[in-house]
Amino acid sequence: MRGRMTIALVASAYLSVANVSSAGAHAIIQLNGVPAVAGKTSAMTLEIQHGCITGGGGTVGVTAQLGKNFGVVTPQVVDGWTGSAAKNDSGTIVTWATTGAAQPFDQPLLLPLQVKWPNKSGVYSITATQTCSGPSEETTWSEPVKPATANSPSPPLTPLATVCVLPKRLAKSSSPSAIKAIDKLCAVASLSPNK
Asked: Could you tell me if residue 195 is inside a domain?
């Protein structure tokens, strides 16, 4: 069941991690084997991989926008980075900035957080923005994942991060029926994530 609790944002599929082209980008949200449970607080890691799509360079800053439904969000210590969280009209914005050299393009950046999950179960979106050096640019993951059409690929190049928050009654169960209920909840809710 722990593997089912890892929620990933990638440029190639909802809730999975896959390879992308050398020009592609992705960020990954990991729950580290602990489910996101409505109203509870637990750890989450935002992993930023390459994402400097047009100019290259390394990562010098990251922001994550969590909606109003989230409770207290606290960035944890990362060597060589400062992190802060502040409330805004849309919820909470978490900002990280390097205190030294840019994170090289080929080295993932792991940004741990403590998150109080929304009180209601469902799928919630988190918009992540990466600031790159050489030349300066930003990559923002904010496009909802949907089926491909004649003019729109699936998944999009910059997919929206989503996290499935479970109701308390399903959080500790590993029965086949509970796993099926979790899968159904997350799949149906992902069609229209909460903010």
From this structure: no
Amino acid at 61: G
CATH number at residue 80: 2.60.40.2230
Q: What is the mean pLDDT of the chain?
A: 78
Count structural domains, the chain. 1
Beta bridge partners of 68: none
Q: What is the pTM of this model?
A: 0.77
CA–CA separation, 22 and 96 (whole Å): 25
Q: CA gyration radius for the chain?
A: 16
pLDDT tens per residue, range 176-195: 777 777 777 777 656 556 65
194 occurs within a structural domain: no
Confidence of residue 81 (pLDDT cuts 50, 70, 90): very high
**How many contiguous H segments (helices) and E segments (strands) does the chain have?**
2, 11
Domain residues for the domain of 123 are 2-189
* 26 within some domain: yes
Kindly provide the b/e burial profile for residues 88-114, where b requires at least 16 CB atoms within 10 angstroms of the residue's own CB. eeebbbbbbebeeebbebeeebebbbe
Share of the chain above pLDDT 70, in %: 77
User: Cβ contacts of residue 104 below 8 Å, gap of 6+?
Assistant: 58
> Do the Cβ atoms of 50 and 25 come closer than 8 Å?
yes
- What is the Cα–Cα distance from 57 to 3, expressed in whole angstroms? 33
